[in-house]
Write a structure and sequence with these properties.
The protein is an alpha/beta fold. Helix content is 42%, strand content 11%. The chain has a 5-stranded parallel beta sheet with strand order 2-3-4-1-5, sandwiched between helices. The radius of gyration is 19 Å and the shape is elongated. The termini are far apart. This is DnaA regulatory inactivator Hda.
Length: 233
């Protein structure tokens, strides 16, 4: 099997920019540290991450898979928002991988076939000494899991709530993402984007991508007047 992150035949892959280096941890530094070191010999076998949409759950799970690849490990990212309508055959033999990252768990909760498959997959990964990280929009005990054994398994590991960033953190995250894209984003322009732009970080980063394209096309630096013109603000 390839040492790169495993790719599903359904075409689900990892975003190149979903890395730990490209994530501003803010109040989530302990969680990020646990994820970075999950594949260490003394790393946590199972991590459960929950938080509101737009707080970076998917980014962190994909970053964990990139980290596994950088360590020559085998990993798999399963976003159930995209894959949950399929039968859970993709969980077969995942214990051959070093790390499995299951996103959007809430999408399959209450479905007998999926819950049973997840329960058995959990056991196989544990018995093989492999690593598992799961993300959802609620803590384990607030999910309407019908299979008691699965509900029990979800509370076995460390659970972290992914905290949203305040305005200072959002500014730092925006400038970190800009630097990663090679963009020069002056403080006053970044603050203007935060003031006028969307509140959700993922939408804010989409805005930044649009500005990057507009700046390259127009061959102009990012200034407040240019941002107003490019975004119609």
């Amino acid at each position: 099997m390839s040492r790169a992150p495993a790719q599903l035949p359904l075409g689900v892959g990892l975003r190149d920019d979903a890395t730990f280096a490209n994530f501003h941890p803010g109040p989530n530094a302990t969680l990020v540290d646990r994820l970075v070191h999950q594949l260490d010999d003394d790393g946590e076998p199972f991590l459960y991450v929950w938080g509101a949409s737009g707080t970076g759950r998917s980014h962190l799970l994909q970053a964990a898979c990139h980290e596994a690849s950088d360590r020559d490990g085998r990993s798999l990212y399963l976003p159930l928002a995209e894959l949950g309508h399929f039968p859970p055959m993709m969980l077969e033999e995942i214990e051959r991988l070093d790390l499995v990252a299951i996103d959007d768990l809430e999408r399959v909760v209450g479905r007998k076939r999926w819950e049973e498959a997840l329960f058995h997959a959990f056991n196989r990964l544990r018995d093989a000494g492999k690593r598992l990280v799961i993300a959802a929009d609620a803590p384990p005990r607030q999910l309407s899991v019908k299979l008691p054994d699965l509900a029990s398994r979800l509370t076995w590991g460390m659970t972290f709530q992914l905290q949203g960033l305040d305005d200072v953190g959002r500014l730092a995250a925006l400038q970190l993402r800009a630097r990663a894209r090679g963009m020069q984003l002056p403080d006053e322009v970044a603050r203007y984007i935060l003031h006028r732009g969307p509140r959700r970080l993922d939408a804010l980063f989409t805005t930044l991508e649009a500005l990057d394209r507009a700046s390259l096309s127009a061959k102009r630096k990012l200034t407040i007047p240019f941002v107003k013109q490019a975004l119609g603000w």
